[in-house]
TrEMBL record:
The lineage of its organism: Bacteria, Bacillati, Bacillota, Bacilli, Bacillales. GO terms for biological process: peptide transport. Residues 31-51 have a biased composition (Acidic residues). GO terms for molecular function: peptide transmembrane transporter activity. Belongs to the bacterial solute-binding protein 5 family. The keyword Lipoprotein applies. This is Peptide ABC transporter substrate-binding protein. It is found in: Cell membrane. Residues 1-19 form the signal peptide.
Length: 565
């Protein structure tokens, strides 16, 4: 999310995403990051002037339960958030979305761009064991081990780390992975090809280290309860009441513990915005998301702020589970039929903006230029009822019917329900003969159904895992880990392969190829339908300072936060 995202005062704690994983009004996330030279920041710090008070405890909200605290298995924004505070990889992101030292003190890359060598600092796990290069090797092997079943392991390491794809396909041994411990403090990584954004990929949760002895001792219990979690990051999970909330406390074994001032962070699962507002007003919580109903009421409050991130909300069309959605004209009609401006102005009223393409605005700039990727491409999405009706009729004729029934999958929280109802109304009003059946489920269940392809049409979300157009556009490769909807295009596959292969070290050609791929994805195939780009209006206790949100990674970064006197 990049190029100079107007940092809008504040942070955002909602469910993605998608990232990496999709979902309507709750972000889920592929969080991500790369291309740090295009970094920016949309971060907004709550100021870091002043002194910390004696009571360094805060309470924030979460939109859903944590599905897992296992870095190899996490695919959602809630898991990213809290694993991101309890684990630390080679690097972290600062308030400007720039890479700063984590477990790595230094790194160097070979001239051909294929070999990276990381020197690790002296650091400890919460159980007192030293953090070593072997912990990274074990974690990365585990992420691509077919028996573990990681979704993001093959997705992020495959085609990047040498032999990762072959291992996940069962064609090579775990020991063949291009990650080795030269010694306890030296991690050597071999890549399949030069990857311009590799260093920033290591911030992503799948690249976190794991203490092999601890993981194997816990077995199936690992990361399922607070007592079965471990930490090498700023905080350690100490309590986990499933469905209700959890608590993390400052880790005294963290290498940079002197920087961490918060002693305790409580998270409460609150699905209804009105509940969160009431709890904030009574002083029981320190942060809560706002929806359209409350934005105008609190806009002048010192606690009010808006945080913008390059999280995209969009329709995912499963071409295998609904015959109508396999028709490009039907998909185009659905995209044209949604009035995105009214959605963000009236239903959301939180700073969100209509999407103009699949790669968000204020995310990346064209190489050696200040021109935003979206500006270079121009709008690929529009609201046009006349075109919607035209494509709809053409699609119905091809199907030999005058009516279509579609199930729309989405989250079951307050704002999401409002958005789903809006989609249903728009489509049934503008497309004669369509019936939209809403399927509202808990976030964790929606993520599961998305992963398994158990949906017809989904109100999905994606947030970047690194700062590069590839984090969005490689999702729809044939049989890709995050495709799960039956879309396949040899031409599209070839463009993405060319951008990441032949043009890997030629930035201008690479980005032009990405522009071409996005046009194919949306203008010609309408494989998905971008709807809006996220922002979050919220209340955040003014006495809490030093919290910020970055382009990728956890939505809130608490390492540098504190409660001011």
């Amino acid at each position: 999310m990049r190029k100079h995202l107007l940092v809008l005062m504040a942070l955002m704690f909602a469910l993605f995403l998608a990232a990496c994983s999709g979902g309507d009004s709750e972000t889920s996330t592929d969080t991500g990051e790369e291309n740090t030279d295009e970094t920016s920041e949309e971060t907004t710090e709550q100021s870091d002037e002043g002194e910390a008070s004696g009571n360094q405890e805060i309470t924030v909200t979460a939109k859903s339960e944590i599905p897992s605290m296992d870095p190899s298995l996490i695919t959602d924004s809630v898991g990213f958030q809290w694993a991101g505070e309890t684990y630390e990889g080679l690097y972290r992101l600062d308030e400007n979305s720039q890479l700063v030292d984590g477990m790595a003190e230094s790194s160097e890359v070979s001239e051909d761009g294929l070999t990276w060598t990381f020197k690790l600092r002296d650091a400890e796990w919460s159980n007192g064991d030293p953090v070593t290069a072997h912990d990274f090797v074990y974690a990365w092997r585990r992420a691509v081990d077919p028996e573990v079943g990681s979704e993001y392991g093959p997705y992020f390491l495959g085609g990047i780390i040498k032999n990762a794809q072959a291992i996940s396909d069962g064609e090579a041994e775990l020991e063949d992975l291009g990650a080795t411990a030269k010694d306890d403090k030296t991690l050597v990584v071999e890549l399949e090809k030069p990857v311009p954004y590799f260093k920033s990929m290591t911030v992503f949760i799948t690249f976190m280290p794991l203490n092999q002895k601890y993981v194997e001792e816990q077995g199936d219990k690992f990361a399922t309860e607070a007592e079965y979690t471990i930490s090498n990051g700023p905080f350690q999970m100490t309590e986990w009441n499933h469905g209700e909330g959890w608590t993390v406390e400052k880790s005294d074994t963290y290498w940079d513990a002197d920087t961490v001032q918060l002693e305790t962070i409580n998270a409460k699962v609150i699905k209804e915005v009105s509940t969160g507002v009431n709890l904030y007003d009574t002083g029981e919580i320190d942060q809560t998301e706002l929806n359209a109903e409350f934005v105008d009421q609190y806009r002048t409050s010192d606690a009010f702020n808006v945080a913008e991130k390059p999280y995209l909300y969009f329709f995912k069309f499963n071409q295998e589970n609904n015959e109508a959605l396999a028709n490009a004209d039907i998909r185009k009609a659905i995209s044209y039929a949604i009035d995105r401006q009214s959605l963000v102005d009236v239903i959301l009223n939180d700073g969100s903006v209509p999407a103009e393409g699949y790669v968000p605005s204020n995310f990346v700039s064209m190489p050696d230029s200040d021109q935003d990727f979206r500006e270079a491409q121009g709008p690929l999405v529009e609201y046009n009822v006349e075109k919607a009706k035209e494509h709809w009729q053409k699609g119905l004729e091809a199907l030999g019917t005058d009516s279509v029934e579609i199930e729309l999958l989405g989250d079951d929280t307050g704002t999401s329900k409002d958005v789903l109802a809006y989609y249903k109304n728009q489509l049934e009003e503008n497309l004669e003969g369509v019936t939209i059946n809403l399927m509202e489920v808990p976030f964790k269940e929606r993520v599961r159904r998305d992963n398994e392809g158990e949906f017809e049409m989904e109100a999905a979300t994606w947030g970047p895992d690194y700062v590069d157009p590839n984090t969005y556009l490689n999702m729809y490769l044939t049989d890709g880990q995050n495709n799960n909807m039956g879309y396949s295009s040899e031409e599209y596959d070839a463009l993405i392969e060319k951008a990441n292969g032949e043009y890997a070290q030629e930035p201008e050609k690479r980005y032009e190829t990405f522009l071409e791929a996005e046009r194919l994805l949306l203008e010609e195939d309408q494989a998905v339908a971008p709807i809006y780009q996220d922002a979050k209006a919220q209340l955040f206790r003014p006495s809490i300072k030093g919290v910020f949100t970055t382009a990728t990674g956890p939505e809130f970064e608490f390492k540098w936060a504190y409660v001011e006197e």
